[in-house]
Amino acid sequence: MALVVMKFGGSSLADADKMKLVASRIIAKKNAGNKVVAVVSAPGDTTDELLEMADKITSNPPAREMDVLLATGEMISISLLAMAIDTMDEKSVSLTGPQAGILADINYTRARVKKVNPKKINSLLSKNNIVIVAGFQALNPKGDVTTLGRGGSDLTAVVLAAGLEADSCEIYSDVEGVYTTDPRLVKDAKKLEYISYDEMLEMAGSGAQILQSRSVEVAKKFGVEIHARSTFSENQGTIITSEEKIRRRKMEELFVSGITFDKNQVKFTIIDLPDIPGVAAKIFSSLAKIGINVDMIIQSAAVNKKNDISFTVSRKETKKTQIELDKIASEFKASQVVCDEHVAKISVVGIGMKSNAGVAGKMFEILHKKGINIEMISTSEIKISCIVDEMDMAKAVEELHKGFGLSKKK
Ligand code: ADP
Ligand code: ASP
Ligand code: MG
Fold first, then answer.
1. Could you check whether 2-174 and 260-403 share the same CATH topology?
2. 42 lines ligand 1 (CB under 6 A)
3. What ligand 2 atom has the least distance to the C-alpha of 48?
4. Class of the CATH-defined domain 2-174
5. Which of 31, 59, 71, 376 has its Cβ near the most Cβ atoms within 10 Å?
6. Smallest CA separation from ligand 2 atom 8, residue
7. Which residue puts its alpha carbon closest to atom 6 of ligand 2?
8. What atom in ligand 1 is closest to the CA of residue 180?
């Protein structure tokens, strides 16, 4: 009997009818002769609503209590889904992350999973139950509930698939798989049959919301093949697997696999910093100390022994970054700190880049032809990203998608 982990995201659980549909899909999978572990997210926008509720009480909530609050979202889904399955005369048991044996480190709000203790789940499965597990949550060494970062139910599905040695890991959402770009923005985006872990990691890390980056990292590490597919159709979705397996299946290798965008960044510039050793070290180590991740960085050439440094951070860190930079600017007698909130990052991702020069040139040429100004550039082995004005974002994505030949053939 095969063991299948099925994960359903919040958009698949947003109301009672959707919950019932999810229940029937789980039961169908069991009736097809499988053992089923279902991982669920909080219904609809519950997690965002919980964050807003906390924000009305305090702008600085204790992290432990934040996790207690956020964990309640997924508990709504597990209990309601178990009730829906019960109405369909099937046996299921709901478990919180801690009950399911998911053990994490001590970091609240972005814990890392350390181990899965599969005893309880295995015992329930052996008694013919469907097991429903609350995604996004785990037990930490202090015995507290903790959460795994936004989109963390994907990670729960992957760690359970690895820990239970499942035969398949299916991640269901409101789209049919991984597309060449977000199908909500570009109507003729194409569903990919396969995508490598590395490309998926770069796409997830640069804005494609469909899977949490960390879940892809862990899937790669443990060789968990993910099937990303839709709750609302029976169609085959996208297989996320190793580059070697894709080669063996002789899939045509795309030059570029996808275009992503991210509006969740802001750009800071510190103007007229002294051109002396240690300035960059001071800025970025101070930001790191207060937990701020910096993404793209550029430093201008020095003029009159002064230069400017620009970089991007996540939008939610704007206030914290501004306060820190004001202190650093006054220490170094810089003339100004400027924050531009109207930027977007667009990226082109593809393993084909490793063996094909000229992707960057082509990207810049496509943007230039449409009169889109590039404010910052960064590259990795299989990704090129540019910061542009947010007003140009949709146009840039559409043109790059077309320009790299990713649109559906008419
Ligand atoms: P869930 O609620 O199931 O966790 P998410 O909202 O986290 O689902 O992710 C699914 C969404 O990801 C889709 O609705 C789609 O708009 C968005 N998305 C962004 N980029 C892509 C892409 N390249 N392929 C597919 N979906 C994408
Ligand atoms: N509910 C959590 C979130 O919104 C986890 C998840 O959906 O995967 O981030
Ligand atoms: Mg998600």
1. no
2. no
3. 4
4. alpha beta
5. 71
6. 151
7. 151
8. 23
CA 231/CA 21 separation, integer angstroms:
8
Of 97, 178, 93, which is closest to residue 131 (Cα–Cα)?
93
Domain edges within the chain? 2-174, 260-403
Ligand 1 atom with minimal separation from the 172 CA: 3
**Which of 113, 112, 130 is CA-nearest to residue 121?**
130
Strands 343-349 and 130-134: unpaired
173 lines ligand 1 (CB under 6 A): yes
Is 260-403 a CATH 3.40.50.10490 domain? no
pLDDT in tens, the chain (410 residues): 999 999 999 999 999 999 999 999 999 999 999 999 999 999 999 999 999 999 999 988 999 999 999 999 999 999 999 999 999 999 999 999 999 999 999 999 999 999 999 999 999 999 999 999 999 999 999 999 999 999 999 999 999 999 999 999 999 999 999 999 999 999 999 999 999 999 999 999 999 999 999 999 999 999 999 999 999 999 999 999 999 888 777 666 667 999 999 999 999 999 999 999 999 999 999 999 998 999 999 998 889 899 999 999 999 999 999 999 999 999 999 999 999 999 999 999 998 888 778 899 999 999 999 999 999 999 999 999 999 999 999 999 999 999 999 987 76
d(CA 100, ligand 2 centre) in Å:
18
Tell me if 73 CB under 6 Å of ligand 2: yes
Asked if residue 136 has its Cβ within 6 Å of ligand 2, the reply is: yes
Q: How far is the CA of 216 from the centre of ligand 1 (A)?
A: 14
Alpha carbons 152 and 137: distance in angstroms, whole number? 8
**Distance from the first to the final alpha carbon of the chain:** 43
Q: How far apart are CA 300 and CA 308, in angstroms?
A: 5
Pocket probe mutation, ligand 1, options 175, 233, 398, max atoms within 8 Å of Cβ: 175
- Inter-CA distances, 409 with 188, 198, 405, Å: 9, 26, 9
